[in-house]
Specification:
The longest helix is centred in the middle third of the chain and has 18 residues, at 67-84. This protein is an alpha+beta fold. The protein has one domain: Hut operon regulatory protein HutP (Hut operon positive regulatory protein HutP, 3-Layer(aba) Sandwich). The chain contains four helices and four strands.
Length: 146
C-alpha cells in the first residue's frame, strides 16, 4: 500500500522543527498522530541520543516498557544524527559540538492502517568546533517503523 502523500511523517517532523508555531494539524491528531519538541547541546553523541529518548519517554511518544518501541526510537535517532554529523556519529572525540532542536512525530503515514505506526526524528541546529562562532548549520532526519 502506498504512502499517503497528504500525511508524510518526515515532512511533518521537519515542519514542526523549522516553524516554531507549527503544531500537528487537527486532522493528524484525529488520525492518532503525536508529536513533541525539545533542545539539546553537547559534545557527546550519547547525550543527544539520551535527550531525545528521554523526551520521547516523558511525552508518551513511546512505551518504555516495550523494547521494540525503544529500539525503533534508538535507530531513528541514530539515522537523524548520522545526517547531522555527515555519517560519522562522533562529536567530542573529534572536537565537534552540536546545539540542536529536535522534533519527534509518531503516526502511520500509509493509506493502509495495517502498515502500523512509524517514528520520525528531525534534528536542526549548529555543529562545529567547540568555539562560539565557529559552527555552521546542520540538519538530520530519521524515519523508522515500530
Amino acid at each position: 500500500m502506498p504512502l499517503d502523500r497528504d500525511h508524510l511523517i518526515g515532512k511533518e517532523a521537519l515542519m514542526i522543527l523549522l516553524q516554531p508555531e507549527k503544531k500537528l494539524s487537527k486532522e493528524l491528531i484525529d488520525l492518532g498522530w503525536r508529536s513533541c519538541k525539545g533542545k539539546v547541546g553537547s559534545m557527546d553523541a550519547h547525550k543527544v541520543v539520551a535527550a531525545v529518548e528521554t523526551a520521547a519517554k516523558n511525552q508518551g511518544m513511546i512505551d518504555p516498557q516495550l523494547y521494540r518501541e525503544t529500539h525503533a526510537l534508538y535507530h531513528t535517532i541514530i539515522e537523524a544524527l548520522s545526517g547531522v554529523t555527515r555519517g560519522n556519529n562522533q562529536l567530542g572525540t573529534v572536537l565537534r559540538t552540536v546545539g540542536l532542536t529536535f522534533s519527534i512525530v509518531r503516526g502511520n503515514p500509509y493509506k493502509d492502517e495495517r502498515e502500523g505506526e512509524w517514528l520520525a526524528v528531525a534534528l536542526y541546529g549548529t555543529i562545529g568546533a567547540p568555539v562560539k562562532g565557529l559552527e555552521h548549520e546542520t540538519i538530520g532526519l530519521g524515519i523508522n517503523h515500530i
